[in-house]
Specification:
Helix content: 10-25%
Number of domains: 2
CATH topology of the largest domain: Quinone Oxidoreductase, Chain A, domain 1
Oligomer: single chain
Largest sheet: 7 strands, mixed
CATH architecture of the largest domain: Alpha-Beta Complex
Shape: globular
CATH superfamily of the largest domain: Medium-chain alcohol dehydrogenases, catalytic domain
Number of strands: 15
Structural class: alpha/beta
Distance between the termini: 50 Å
Number of helices: 10
Radius of gyration: 21 Å
Length: 336
């Protein structure tokens, strides 16, 4: 009797990736081979060349992101080239960027040689920027730009306080705000970083003791027009006290590791006529972020990608340790 024909399909193509089987310390990030994703007509398969690290990925690795099902490939952003676009929306070889939209949480993200994402969250780029600098930009620029333009509606001539100035978003926001014609105040807990912040565009650097509203008002007695809060709830109430009447405070970051205020009495916490908002960012926001313009500005030496340090994909656990230790002043990027 002849053997039955093999009904199995071809073996799936494999790729190298960092897989998180369960939450834990950096060592739980495992470098191994997994099947390469296969895109549908509504998706784009991207050959990842670089991606920036983000605090939200650290929180997911630690088990603080609700709804994440394991195993999962983390990574909420990536840059690279189009490998496949079955729907024809992009051409193979095009340079592209992607961010957010469930990457690394609802579906596998950028910590891999390939990532497969919805076509609606992919932006084509034409740039001479190297992969390391380009990899620093998508989520970083989107968050800073969206916070300033969409949430705070900044205007030339205004004063802006950036609470958490040494974060990568804080440094990017300072660059953008100076370009937009604002006076920039920024904070750090480490006096040794003050010169770095001034070189990045800050007009005033305040050493943050947790209570800087008096120092802000010593410079601007009426308070500042806008506040970008990147530390979170641990400093939010003080930031509100630094805002002028009709001022706006936007909470974008939570690097202070406290997600909620234990007691919040709005009538006491929010000064009269000061407005409080948040910026969380959506995948569609990347489409409205001037990524190509900023990449050209970096390539021309007029702006900085704020690249702090690069790692390779097999070094991802070490990169997470570096980020978790708050050693970076700028963006940490992984080259793939």
């Amino acid at each position: 009797m002849s053997a039955m024909p093999n009904q199995a399909g071809p073996e799936p193509l494999l790729m190298n990736a960092i897989v998180l089987d369960q939450p834990g310390p950096p060592e739980v990030l495992q470098y191994r081979q997994v099947p390469r994703p296969v895109p549908t007509a509504e998706q784009v398969l991207i050959r990842v060349r670089a991606f920036g690290l983000n605090r939200s990925e650290l929180f997911t690795r630690q088990g603080h992101s609700p709804g994440v099902v394991f195993p999962r490939i983390l990574g909420i952003e990536a840059v690279g080239t189009v490998a496949e676009a079955p729907g024809g929306q992009f051409q193979p070889g095009q340079t592209v960027a992607t961010a957010m939209g469930g990457m690394g949480r609802a579906f596998d993200g950028g910590y891999a040689e390939y990532t497969c994402v919805p076509v609606g969250q992919v932006v084509a780029l034409s740039t001479t920027l190297d992969w390391a600098q380009l990899g620093a930009l998508p989520e970083l620029l989107q968050t800073a730009w969206g916070s300033l333009k969409s949430a705070l509606d900044v205007q030339a001539g205004q004063t802006l306080l950036i609470r958490g100035g040494t974060t990568s978003v804080g440094m990017m926001a300072a660059q953008l705000a100076r370009h937009m014609g604002l006076t920039v105040l920024t904070t750090t807990r480490n006096p040794a970083k003050a010169d770095r912040l001034r070189a990045n565009g800050a007009d005033h650097v305040l050493i943050d003791s947790g209570n800087i509203a008096p120092a802000v008002r010593a410079l601007f007695p009426q308070g500042v027009d806008r506040v970008l809060e990147l530390i979170g709830t641990t400093t939010l109430l003080d930031s509100l006290r630094a805002a002028a009447k009709q001022g706006v405070v936007c909470m974008t970051g939570i690097v202070g590791n406290a997600w909620a205020l234990p007691e919040f009495a709005p009538m006491d916490a929010i000064p009269s006529t000061v407005r409080l908002t948040v910026y969380t960012g959506e995948a569609s926001d990347l489409l409205n972020t001037p990524l190509s313009w900023f990449a050209d500005e970096v390539a021309a030496g007029r702006q900085s990608a704020l690249l702090d340090r690069t790692f390779t994909l097999p070094e991802l656990a070490a990169a997470h340790r570096y980020m978790e230790a708050n050693e970076a002043t700028g963006k940490v990027v992984v080259l793939v």
